[in-house]
Design a protein that fits this description.
Layout lengths: L2 E2 L4 H10 L1 H15 L7 H13 L4 H17 L4 H20 L6 E2 L11 E6 L6 H14 L4 E5 L5 H14 L3 E2 L7 H14 L4 E5 L7 H15 L9 E7 L4 H13 L4 E5 L9 H9 L3 E5 L7 E3 L2 H8 L2
Parallel strand pairs: 3-6, 3-7, 4-5, 4-6, 7-8, 8-9
Antiparallel strand pairs: 1-2, 9-10
Helix pairs in contact: 2-3, 3-4, 4-5, 4-11, 5-12, 6-7, 8-9, 10-11
């Protein structure tokens, strides 16, 4: 059975490296907060609250974490940075477990459409968040796991989007279905599924336009794409994957809110975590939206994408 995203030593090393900036930032702030203090008191909790908010965990999620730590402190007194790190790690891990029931340990059964039809992933997100790159990396990940992958270039409003996806299809050696710029995106999606079914593909990844300036148009367009795909595969898309740029911090929250309003997002990929000290955004997004973070991007290379593993993520952050 082909398995996706198992945490080998190489994967763990990549995750550690990818979260270096966030980890360094959090620990520096944490060290300053506990300097000269021997107990976790109200003043220290106030400073810890500032540390988490400034790491883009988000206000609401930060308050939940602080409340949990306060409850722990009432039962016992903890001393020093080491103990505080341990409590933080445990409480954040528990919070993530509560909000994401699935293990995200994906095997071949995780990508099975009904009646032998391909599993369809529709990708949404604004321009510039790493949408096309993530599609390419996912195509590579799935292909390495033995899946037959098709790409659909349904972002027909930007010539660069189609060109970039073609480059990725060639790089990964997977087929792509495209039409000329300005074509109907739903038509591209239909043709992609039609070709994928005829060629017995396992997974289809459909790119869509990354525009948020008119939410009604966006909603209508995505709804039309879904309806057209359902003529061929009634339960498509099986996954609506929202791509968010982790380096934008709180702006990622705003984008998530808009896309969740516009369509039925059921999975999230967080990109560019390696280039930012704002990795705490993964904790806040997981908590606030109750939508699984399925993938994280931690570098520029084709292999630099991982299945989001909650336990390993928190371990790497507080190692």
């Amino acid at each position: 059975m082909a398995v996706f995203g198992l945490f080998s030593k190489d994967n763990k090393d990549s995750l550690d490296k990818g979260l270096e900036k966030t980890k360094e930032s959090v620990f520096k702030k944490l060290s300053r907060a506990v300097a000269g203090k021997s107990t976790v008191d109200e003043d220290l909790l106030d400073e810890l609250e500032e540390v988490l908010i400034s790491s883009d965990v988000g206000v609401d999620t930060t308050l939940k974490i602080i409340e949990r730590i306060e409850a722990r402190v009432k039962k016992d007194k903890y001393f020093g940075t080491g103990e505080l790190n341990k409590i933080l790690k445990e409480e954040i891990a528990d919070l993530l477990k509560e909000n994401q029931a699935s293990s995200n340990k994906l095997d071949e059964n995780s990508f099975s459409g009904k009646n032998g039809k391909p599993y369809v992933i529709m990708v949404v997100g604004v321009n510039g968040v790493g949408k096309t790159t993530t599609i390419g990396k996912l195509a590579n990940l799935f292909k390495k796991a033995g899946k037959k992958v098709y790409l659909g270039a349904a972002d027909t409003f930007r010539a660069a989007a189609v060109e970039q996806l073609v480059i990725w299809s060639e790089r990964v050696s997977v087929p792509i279905v495209k039409q000329k710029m300005g074509s109907d995106p739903a038509s591209v999606a239909f043709d992609t599924l039609d070709s994928a079914i005829k060629n017995q593909a396992d997974i289809v990844i459909i790119d869509t336009a990354g525009r948020l300036h008119n939410k009604i148009n966006l909603m209508n367009e995505l709804t039309k794409i879904k309806k057209v795909m359902q003529k061929l595969i009634p339960d498509a898309p099986h996954e609506i994957l929202l791509i968010l740029d982790g380096s934008t911090g709180q702006n990622a929250f705003s984008q998530a809110k808009e896309f969740i309003k516009a369509t039925e997002v059921n999975a999230i990929a967080l990109t560019k975590l390696d280039g930012t000290a704002k990795g705490g955004v993964a904790i806040g997004i997981s908590d606030q939206f109750k939508i699984p973070i399925k993938y994280i991007g931690i570098g520029e290379g084709i292999e630099d994408i991982q299945i989001f593993n909650k336990v390993e993520f928190v371990e790497a952050l507080f190692k």
